[in-house]
Amino acid sequence: MLFNSLDFAIFFPIVFALYWLVARNLTLRNVLILVASYTFYGWWDWRFLFLIAVSTLVDFYVGKKMHKIENKKKRKQLLFVSLLVNLGFLVYFKYTNFFIESFVDSFRLFGKELEVSTLNIILPVGISFYTFQTLSYTIDIYRKQLKPTNDIIAFSAFVSFFPQLVAGPIERASHLLPQFYKTYTFNYKLVKSGLLLMAFGLFKKMVIADRAALYVNQVYNNVDDYGGVGYIYATVLFAFQIYCDFSGYSDIAIGLGRTMGFDLMKNFDSPYISKSLTEFWRRWHISLSTWFRDYLYIPLGGSKKGKYRTYANLFIVFVVSGLWHGAAMTFIIWGAIHGIILMIEKGTFTFRKRLFNKIGLDKNNFSNHLFFGFIIFTIVCFGWVFFRANSLSDSLQIVSGFFSDFNLGDMFKKETYLIGFKPNEFKVITIAILMLFAFEYFHKKHNSIKFLNNQSTLFRWSFYLSIVILIMLFGIYGDRNIQEFIYFQF
């Protein structure tokens, strides 16, 4: 079920009304959340509910058993059961065909053709997200940082919580699970702010991301028909598409949780204003980057085993992050690019600090922010080429086209940057992106929710209504562009 669908527009008000009717009865409330969450996920394909149920039951009983045992070897064996089940599902459904194709390609390098076909495997929506969420529970119990729950209903609701089930934020059990033990009273201001955040998320998704997809898909699905400038426009638009698509989903998820009294973690923090790639990853998909930090980077040794080991750990984490996003060489290269740049940033930190100090780039002013922001945005966009391209050959053609097919004069030709767009559509998305940046800047400076609460009732409701009208007027609907959220495929 999609947040931007008619099905969900009917589903959520029913769940919302029933939720607040039974909110004071903790058990009944959690049962309702569980049923709603399984209905939400099963709407896509009910057969894959079996995977969530098995992961839930295995981790629930492993966690209880592990907590009672002090023997380290037996605790490791129990943790291995959790890892085997959860990662086993993930590897089978997501990577089996990738491994088969890689195996065949390796023989092809030596002139051998193997008659091996891939399997007909459907990737369950959101499996990468809820797998990492439930694994954090058993790992934290193994580390003795968390006590297991005895409430199977609350734990099942935690694993399958429908607002963030299929695309995050990836919550930790230590943060979200205790919220299923609390009763909440209806809070008008909290519900209102949640609904406003949902509306803002839908605006980002339907007005910006889905409209940008019109052009991005046209270029990236037909790379032979375009040149350097067309590639650049499409890549920059994809940067905004993926940001508005994914952060829009996170906004809707956080807003949904808030309308029911739940607090979900912040997942994005204006990443495109970052002045370094390190800062970018503190602002982009925060729940995933912190998960990899706590459950992979630090266990590998982090930065405590010398600089070369630190560089290796960074590189490993980002290659694994690339593979987490997708079973293709393009994703691995995308992760490797980020890993290499982060290694360079870390290795040249002292040198860069001295150099920037000498030439005046260390000052905290607008021009320096703009300079570094442009460089990091360019690097991130270069990486997005591999992330978005349909194949490795397509990505290499696009990168090559940036330099070989680039003609500065083409940038000012309407036919170059309006392919796939009507002129008015181009104006709409340009204005919408500028509105987004203005809103995010204002929100960081003044907190838009507090600002709105201090305004008159007429002003507030005029603002709310204007967002709804903008979504209805400029949001993409219909067969022309039925768009799932990008991160559903991961």
Give a short synopsis of this structure.
Its main location: membrane. This protein has 490 residues and is mostly helical. The protein is built from 20 helices and no strands.
Strand content: under 5%
Reading the helices and strands in chain order gives: HHHHHHHHHHHHHHHHHHHH
Mean pLDDT: 86
Helix content: over 70%
Distance between the termini: 16 Å
- Shape annotation: globular
Q: Largest sheet at a glance? A: none
**SS field, number of helical segments:** 20
Rg on CA atoms, Å: 24 Å
Number of domains: 2
Number of strands: 0
In the predicted model, the low-confidence regions spanning at least 5 consecutive residues are none
- Judged by helices, strands and strand pairing, the structural class is mainly alpha
